[in-house]
UniProtKB/TrEMBL annotation:
Domain of life: Bacteria
Entry GO MF terms: oxidoreductase activity
Organism placement in taxonomy: Bacteria, Pseudomonadati, Pseudomonadota, Betaproteobacteria, Burkholderiales
Domain DSBA-like thioredoxin: 10-213
InterPro entries given in the database record: DSBA-like_thioredoxin_dom, Thioredoxin-like_sf
Protein name as catalogued: DsbA-like thioredoxin
Signal peptide: none
Length: 227
């Protein structure tokens, strides 16, 4: 691919409690595998909270979605099955029963911020473990014991994770990152920002990501395009 940029910086703005973010990440990674080794990418996960006011105990999923979207149980079941199928296409397993509750995800984002400082690879590992814990294993992503265990599985220090969770460390930095993206006009996720100037919105199919990534990698630095 002559003239193609060999390396992309990708900011994946998402929430742990967003099913389309799990689908979008699977699609993006599949697309990156297709265009390798001609194009490589440095992936960073950025915070976004769908429900920043959610209390610690969370809320029943049906109740929450019904209040937010006016959806019935049948509509939610249909949506859940569609998302389950899209996830299966990119290798992500959603529990057929769905998630029992919606939880506050701020502490998970604080740990992801710390993980990025440790290494992007560990941040990516933690992000995937968080998505699996919530959507596949139906676990509570706001539970500190769950978070410490997942951090450890991602290769991070358990004692340091506990220390962060027991304090408000990285709260200010996480809030600032969240505001930066919402101030930039991002109000739904996933939002995938490439080289700080190209935006791909939503849990797109693999082919859409692949086509956009190839176009962006071959674009001149001054070119701004949205996919």
């Amino acid at each position: 691919m002559p003239g193609m940029t060999s390396h992309l910086k990708i900011d994946f703005v998402s929430d742990v409690s967003c099913p389309w973010c799990a689908v979008g990440l699977g699609s993006l990674e599949a697309a990156l595998r297709r265009i390798a080794p001609d194009v490589t990418a440095e992936l960073h996960f950025q915070p976004f909270e769908l429900n920043p006011q959610m209390p610690p105990e969370g809320q029943d999923t049906f109740e929450h979605l019904s209040q937010k979207y006016g959806s019935t149980r049948e509509q939610q079941a249909q949506s859940r099955e569609m998302i389950r199928q899209r996830g299966a296409e990119v290798g992500f397993e959603f529990s057929p029963e769905g998630r029992p509750r919606i939880y506050n995800t701020f502490d998970a984002h604080r740990l992801l911020h710390w993980a990025e400082l440790e290494s992007p690879a560990r941040q990516a590992a933690l992000k995937k473990l968080l998505l699996k814990a919530y959507f596949t294993d139906r676990q509570n992503p706001s539970d500190h014991e769950v978070l410490v265990r997942l951090a450890t599985e991602a290769g991070l220090d358990a004692a340091r994770a506990r220390e962060i969770l027991a304090s408000d460390e990285f709260a200010r930095e996480t809030r600032e990152r969240e505001r930066m993206y919402t101030d930039a006009g991002i109000h739904s996720v996933p939002a995938i920002i490439i080289n700080d100037q190209h935006l791909i919105s939503g849990g797109q199919p693999v082919e859409v990501f692949e086509r956009a990534l190839r176009q962006i990698a071959g674009a001149q630095p001054s070119t701004v395009a949205a996919a």
